[in-house]
Amino acid sequence: QVQLMESGGGWVQPGGSLRLSCAASGSIIRFITMDWYREAPGERREWVARIQGGGGTHYTPAVKGRFTISRDNTKNTVYLQMDNLKPEDTAVYFCNKWPEPWGWGQGTQVTVSS
Question: In which residue ranges of the chain is pLDDT below 50?
Answer without folding.
Answer: none
